[in-house]
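Quick one, T. Sequence first:
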Amino acid sequence: MVRNLDLPRSVADNVNVTDPDIIARYCRDWTGRVVGNTDLLLRPRTHAELAELVRHVGAHQEKILVQGGNTSLAGGSVPLNNEILLSTERLVTIKVDPVSMTANVGAGVKLADLQFEIARYGLAFGVDIASRGSATLGGMTATNAGGIHVLRYGPMADNIVDLSYVFGDGSTREPREALLKDATGPSIQRLLVGSEGIFGIITSVTLRLLAQPQHRLVAITPLQSLEEGISIGTKLRGNVAAINAIEFLGPEAVQLAPSNPPWPTSPGGALLIEVLSEASVFADQLDELELEREWIIADDPRRITDLWSWREEIPGWIARVGKPLKLDLSVPIDRLADLYQLAQTTAREAGVQCYCFGHLGDGNLHVNLIGEDHLLEAVSHAIYRHVVKLAGAISAEHGIGTLKKQELSIVQSAVERRQLAQLIEIFNPGRVINPNVMMDY
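Structure tokens:
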């Protein structure tokens, strides 16, 4: 029996979806590992509609699970206990202000659509991720996504001017004009950045934009080891101001490519660098830093895309092998090689396949494990404990979701978890929104 929320007919006719064939497409995560269920999908078109839906759901003592582009890799975007699924996919307005160099975007706007629109004004956005064609700005904000340019521009939190929201108690903050400076007390709205929807639902975000760079190049060099890559990256970060990204392509992952890479096979994989300068300037800098080695350098847009594909297509290559359990980890950069070796050894000893890649420039390693479920659980627990011993974080940019919430106790104290639970009860009493995400209490 389909639930009746007593919605006004004008709203219900436009936002309700009960067709199980349509709903099923929203109930499986990107990896295929997390599958849920619901009998009701809500797709509001405006901030006001979304607020009304939250109030009606709360009044009927139902629960909501929020979904953006469903690119979550931590299980946080799938309804596991028949929660009402609320998709932000129809909140897609984009308003660019070239004077303040900001853009106010609906929570359902895909990153690629934002990039296309602001390019018409000669502008760019600092955060970029490989899933740009499906990831939404609301979801990226809710997980404080980082991506490939954190080294230069920081994660979402560093690129947000303002946002609007609906809290679980039905209170709201309406969208407003961009205000670049506001020191009138603590910013409640900032609390939602990285909160994964446990306080409320983001309906729009005002983003800080940048001028499009005049020059851009990508360079790839083979590695004998990850330690060598860290050494090269350290030299570049300290001496090349125009560094935009430093990425690690693990050797096990590269071996899954359908064709041979354009660099010699190397036991340590490869290092990919993006630099916002002319190729001749970068070549001179490499000479000065005594980094004269085999580099493949491209400054033509099409060739740049080709080289970046060797990094961005790795998740797809891994998915062809099996359904991966994805661990999104960060440690101090000088301990990244230790984490890589510990992950490989732990997986190998348990008979689990392990494929690694990630953002070397900010110490973020993506560990992909493929094997039997009971083995994956044991291996992941062991790797998380290695991360803690290395003074790292069990989630660098994907969030906690539902897959990692049992691990929260190893990185947060009982006091911190109790304080978080108290905040949830203030803004989302009764956990109307995202009741199973991040933590249970």
